[in-house]
Amino acid sequence: MSDQDRAFFLVVTIRPRPDRRREAEAQLQSMRRDSLTEPGCVFMHLVQPQDDPDTWVMLEMFRSRAAWDEHMGQPYNVRGNAILEDLLAAPSELRFFTEK
């Protein structure tokens, strides 16, 4: 099985602007709801470290890298990421994982 066909995981570190936190969360939750309707999205959870209220983490699993690539091109996702640019203190950090 090639890496393109394996389950694909992401950990996205998100740092909302303190003055735009509510807007950022609303935007992320909207994008999450839409993502969960995609057949390639297995799960997506927005979580917050208990020791760091200024950082959020989105835990994501897609059926494959190709499914994630398709996800990134969805109009709601392109539009949502553009909106997030003004709501975040720094660009999100993405880490990619494949199952062993």
TrEMBL record:
PROSITE patterns: ABM (PS51725). InterPro entries: ABM_dom (IPR007138), AI-2_Isomerase_LsrG (IPR050744), Dimeric_a/b-barrel (IPR011008). GO terms for molecular function: catalytic activity. Residues 8-96 form the ABM domain. SUPFAM superfamilies: Dimeric alpha+beta barrel. This is ABM domain-containing protein. It comes from Actinoplanes nipponensis.
